[in-house]
Structure formats: C-alpha cells, structure tokens
Amino acid sequence: MSQPTRILLSLVVGLALGVLLAAQAPSAVPGVLLGAEPIGTAWLNALQMTIIPLVVSLLVTGIAATAQAVRAGRIAARAIAVILTIMGLSAVLAAFLTPLLLRLAPLPVDSAAALRAALIGAPAAADPPGLLAFFTGLVPTNVVAAAANSAFLSLIIFTLLFAFALTRIEAERRVALTRFFEALRDTVLVMVNWIIWAAPVGVFALALTVGARAGSAAFGALVHYILIVSAVGVVVTLLAYPVAMIGGRIGLVRFGRAALPAQAVAVSTQSSLACLPVMLKKAEELDVPAATGGVVLPLAVVMMRATGPAMNLAVAIYVATWFGAPIGAATLAAATVVAMLTSLGSVSLPGQVSFISAIAPINAVFGVPVAPLGLLVAVETLPDIVRTLGNVTMDLAVTTTVSARSGPVARDEADAVLAEG
Length: 421
Known about the structure:
With 421 residues, the protein is mainly alpha-helical. It has 20 helices and no strands.
C-alpha cells in the first residue's frame, strides 16, 4: 500500500470513528479528544517547522538553476520564458476561476462552521491590512523577525533579492553558497520525509477530532473541496490544447492523440518524470526535432508544474472562504504572485511535500491558518492525478511551442547543449 493510500485510509477511518463516537457514545468524546488532540497538534507543528527553511532553500536553488539554464543557450532561455509565462497565467486563472466556482457551488454554511470549530487550535482568519499598510509592509526591516512571524511575502521578497544577487557574484563563491542551500534543502527534505512517514498517525488523530466535533458534515465538505480544486486543474489541462494549436501550430486532434499515451502514464503513476520517455517519443511524432525535445522537455518536467500555481492558489482561496477571510484585490494579487513563486520553487518535490510548502505561504498572505492543510493533504490523491495530467499535457504543449518558434540556429544550440549533457 502506497503512503498516499495509507494517509487517505487514515483520514476516512478517523472521520468515520469520530462521527460514530459522537453519535453513539458522546460522553466518551472528551476523553478521546484529550488523547487525540496533542498527537494531531504535534504532527501539524512538525510540518510547520520545516516550511520556512524549505521555502527559502528551494527559492534560492531554483533561481540559481534557472540562471544556469538560461546560460545554456537561446532555446533554453526561450523555454524558460514560456514556462514562466504559463506559470503566471496559471495563477491568474485561479484568482478569477476559484471565487467564481465557489459562488456557483458554495460550501454549505453549516459544514464550513462545523469544520472551523473542529480544527485543532486553528485561529480565526486575521483581517488583512489596508492597502497602504500592505505595500509598506512588503519589504522587511528584519528578515529574522519576518521568518519568526511567518510573514512569508516579506521573506520571499528578501529571498528573491538574495537569490538574484547570488547570481551576480564571483563564480566560485556562488557555487559554494548554492551548494550550502542545496545541502540545507536536502537535509530539510529528509526531515519532511520522516514527518510524512508519520502522517497516517497524525492525520488519523486530526480526522478523529474533526469527525467527533463536526459530524458527517466533514465528509461532504471534503468532497466539495476535491471537486472545486480538481475543476481548476481540469481547466488548466484543457488550456494546453489551444497553447499547442496556437503556439505550436499543431492541430487539436493531432495533439490530443499524441498526448493520450503520456496522459495514461500520468494517471497511473502520478509522476511527470515517469512520463518523460513517452513524451519524448510523441514530441518527435509532432515534428519536434530530437535535440529540441531533449532540451525543452526535461527542462519543463524539472521546472514547470503548470497546474501548481492554479491549484495551490485554489486551495488557499478555498481555505480563506472556509474561514470567512475577506479577500481584497491587493491581497489576491499578492497571493497570486506567491502561488507562482512557491510553485516554481517546489517543482521537484513529491506531491505531499510540495502541498504543504507551497500552500502555507499563500495561506499566510490571506491570514488563514495552516491547520486545515493537515487534513486536506490526506485527500490529495484525486487532485494530484489531475495535477499530473495537466502538467504532462502542458509540458508537451510548451515543447511544441518552443520548437515552432525556434529557428535553425537555436536548434543547432540545442544540439550542442544535448551533446554537452
């Protein structure tokens, strides 16, 4: 049994036992919660303690890798430009689409209230600052204080400036400092893997508590969440087809047939990397030169998760709506930028790890707690299938676009880059 399956099973069993306990033996609920709450809280705290070092190290190493890829040649630079554009549009799409979906199919008020009351130690949503205070607070006066107070947007701004400055220093020192952040990243990821290994216990404790306090409303709310977030990912997936048609000058039917085998692998494996051999073969069938596909497709798989910004922002907007947090234009714009940046930094991580590290900073922008993510990560199996399906489809569309827009000189450079690799 895979770890995601164990976590999902722990959630279902915990919720069911909690609901059953509340219905059949309500007098036993306080005693059970006395034991379950500390376990769930400890697991959530363990998740949260890794977020700041992971986000900082991922952003620094991600920007360093991007700068290195740009130096590899014009075709790599063009691919990165297209990837960044897609990531930005993905986040903007969710900023408009998710509130629309929540208006068309709102979460029942009673379910939202029951879930808010059931979550362990989840504070009420904080009021966002005024527009002037928001912009003046973007630049931190003390980066350590920003980290201590989970002021993620200020921390991200400092980290971005630091990472771009890092690319401008002498090569030997740049490499040494980049390796430090790579070592920090890898060390924190080992810690995260340990925490995820214990996730079935933590999720069971959380689910038992929520089920006992919220009752059967928890099941309906989680199904509603899965449908809303997955719908956003499906829309991003569908957008890959016009990208291939307009950017790659490929007919819709032809592209759809070429993408189908990679999509089948994506659904069965939930891994973009596992789809790479199939995508390389199908890219050649779409008249993408082998050298171009050999540069652009691996770059897209490593750097881009097209559904990441959209679906991560959708999760944060859902939680903000769940907690009744007001979402102003400035806050939504900031959250959109953070969704793109954190997704770009977490593209090489497993789904369960990137779920927490990429969405927690967006939650912080909205002023909502991280506690709901401990439950939502347990039902990530179906949304993760949609994520992988959209990522693989867009990877292929981006490759056809870069190939169609690259001249013979750029393709010669791709041959050289591939030969060096």
